[in-house]
Structure formats: C-alpha cells, structure tokens
Amino acid sequence: NMKAxxxxxxxxxxxxLFSQSQTYSEMEMKRFHSIRESYFRAERYSxxxxxxxxxxxxxxxxxxxxxxxxxxxxxxxMLEATAMVTSDPSQLAALADSVLTYDKIAQTQLRVGxxxxxxxxxxxxxxxxxxxxxxxxxxxxxxxxxxxxxxEEDLISGQSTSAQTHHEKAIQADSGNIAAWYSYLGxxxxxxxxxxxxxxxxxxxxxEQAERAQYEEAATSSPYLFKRVLHYTFQDLxxxxxxxxxxxxxxxxxxx
Length: 256
What we know:
single chain; 2% strand; flat
C-alpha cells in the first residue's frame, strides 16, 4: 500500500544520507530520550494512543534530523511502537528491514525475529533471523529465549521432536528461566509423558523453593530495612517525581 511504499522510500533515502555523513547534537539526544520516555510510559499503561504518538514523534524526528547518528535506536523504537498499534505486514516488514540495515548484531536479529513471529509477519524470515542469531548470542537469557521461540514455532508446525530439543536446550542455556521449565512441563503433559513431566515438576518446585529462601534471606538482612527513606525520590502515575518527605512524619521501609 501507499504507506508501506512511502516508508520504504523514507528508509532508502535516509540510508543514502546516513551513509554519507551523520549529525550529532545535544538537542537530538534530548529529544530522542524524551521520545523514549514517552514510549516507556505508553508501555507501562498499554496505551494505544500514546504508542501512536510515539510513532508520530519518531517520524517527525527523522524529518528534522535525516542524518542523525541515532538512526539505529530510532528505527528500533519505531518498530517496537508500531508493533503495538498495527499488524500491517508490509509496514512491519519495512520497519524490520530498516532496523536491520543499521543494526545487525545478534540481539537485534533475535528481537526483530521475535516480533515478526509474534505479529505473524514473514514467519519464515523471522525463524531464519533467530536461527542466524543463535550461534552469536552470548547471554544465557538470549540463548534460552531463542530456543523457546523456536520451540513454540515447532509446536505450531507439529514438529514435536524438534520442539522437545529446543525446550531442553533453552533450560540447559538458562536453568533459572522458570518460564522455560513451565513451558517444557506443559509440552510433556501434552505428549502424555507423565514420568518425565513429574521429574520436571519436581525440578520446578526445587527452583521455586530455592528462590523463596533467597528472597526471605534478603528480606531479613537488607541494610535498608527500618531506615528512614524520606529523602528517596519516586514517580507517581503521571510520571512526576516526588520525595516521601512531602507526606511528613516517619516513613519506614518494612520490606525490600
């Protein structure tokens, strides 16, 4: 459609400009960080209206700073915000292209692939992006997440053997990923593998007990417990900063 064509043209023309020279200014940084804050606020409240406003702000930003050095971050944020307000495959695919034009690191490929699968846009390409990124991922969470995404796609396509392999690799990569354990438990129950399912359930209970004990220990030994916290600064629902001393009296932290 025309919007996708216009977006593709904008990406192409901006890429040519970006390859020639880049701009950097304090004003660019401040405005981009302000837009990011707006995105986080929209994410916090799941506000469609605010996500759309973020997309509009990013498009205005690119028009004002067509050669900005912040393009990788701008396009990544635009893809994230756009994915929250539309499932238009051509629009999302064009944005995915622009993100990968400026940022080809493995974590970015993983995230773009994840969004494509989530929105059911160019599913084959999304899987390939994750597969390509997997050997280059270094953080255990990312490796585990990649295997979980591939396992989910295997289940959709009925490849149970491959799904089991990816579940096991996800747990092997990050044994603390409780979501991976529960997903594997559900898979085994669906496969009616009751013996292995019980074994996995026992492991989950062990992990949760260990996490509970760790929390209880931290909760009783924190140096912040029962200390005055009037000077601490927080944010209210309107994203306005305030300190507790405005309430007067003594405010104590009873858990941490």
